[in-house]
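Recall that a protein's primary structure is simply its ordered list of amino acids. Everything else, from secondary elements to tertiary packing, is in principle encoded there. The following example makes that idea concrete.
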Amino acid sequence: MIRTNEKASQTFQIEIVEPLSNIVEVVAEDEQEALLKAQKMYRNEQVVLYPDDFIDTKFVVFQ
């Protein structure tokens, strides 16, 4: 029997997450309305996140 020091190769799925973040000011009567307005602004591309808005990189291993 021949022994080797080689380990069997495996395949891993790695998720790479690079969140972007930006704070926008919204005038509204309450928090819910402000959130809805901000979401609408984002969907209508009035707020666009750019690479300068990068805040972190996270690596997650899935098994």
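Residues 1 and 7 are 16 Å apart (CA to CA). The chain has a mean pLDDT of 93.
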